[in-house]
Amino acid sequence: MRPYTIAFSIVAHAIAVGAAIIAPLLATDELPAPRTATEFVQVVPVTPPPPPPPAPRRTTPPTAPPRADAAPLTAPQGIKPEPTIEPVRDAPPVDGGIVSFGDCNGCGLVDAAPTPPPPPPPPVVHVGGDIKPPRKVVDVAPVYPPLARAARVEGIVILEAVIAEDGSVRDVRVLRSQALLDEAAVEAVRQWRFTPTLLNGQPVPVVMTITVAFKLR
Fold first, then answer.
1. 209: enclosing H helix or E strand
2. Exposed, middle or buried: residue 131 (CB in 10 Å: 0-12, 13-18, 19+)?
3. In what order do the strands lie in the sheet with 206-214?
4. Does residue 210 contact residue 158 with C-beta atoms inside 8 Å?
5. Which residues touch 140 (CB under 8 Å, ≥6 apart)?
6. Among candidates 92, 110, 111, which has minimal Cα distance to 102?
């Protein structure tokens, strides 16, 4: 019986192996999808609502002490007479709204008038027309500067000066300059004196042009 047993065992194993191979090929159900190795899960935090604000505490304002001049809360018992004010006996008498101290007749009260504004300065006129040039009464010759003399510098310096009401010279300025000679010319003209210039019988300042010549000998 042993040969039959071996043959039967071989056939049984062949049938089992063939069934294991053919059964999956004949299956029609869909195979389950394999699970992924990594899964991403997003967690959204939920913020709780804020707590309600605390209820305001009711505080009782402090009671201020009653003022001395406040109106009384209760009616007074009767009416008190007004206090008598004695007149001041040592006060000086009042006469017409002015306090009088004996025979002083309102001394100490100063009724000073406002200071009047200063008179405007007289207008400055120019020589010409009815305005005659003033006459020079004091002449001072200019000093020749040593540097100009050594450099043999000659020429004329033209100045404009204002002759004041008293005949003095002021506000001298150079109209035509000559190198090394201007300062000497201005210094000499400032020492000159002229007769006053009259306008409607009143002395007025006058503007005039002065020429100073420098010449070597």
1. strand 206-214
2. middle
3. 125-126, 206-214, 155-163, 169-176
4. yes
5. 188, 191, 192
6. 92
CATH architecture of the domain covering 126-214: 2-Layer Sandwich (3.30)
Q: What tens digit of pLDDT does each residue of 167-205 get?
A: 999 889 999 999 899 999 999 999 999 999 888 888 999
d(CA 118, CA 138): 32
Helix (H, G, I), strand (E, B) or coil at 158: strand
77-91: per-residue pLDDT in tens?
666 677 777 766 665
Task: Count CA atoms within 13 Å of residue 165 on its CB side.
Answer: 8
Burial class (CB in 10 A: 0-12, 13-18, 19+), 147: exposed
Cα(188)–Cα(143) distance, integer angstroms: 8
pTM reported for the whole predicted model: 0.45
Q: Which residues of 37-75 are buried (b: 16+ CB within 10 A; e: fewer)?
A: eeeeeeeeeeeeeeeeeeeeeeeeeeeeeeeeeeeeeee
Residue type, 150: A
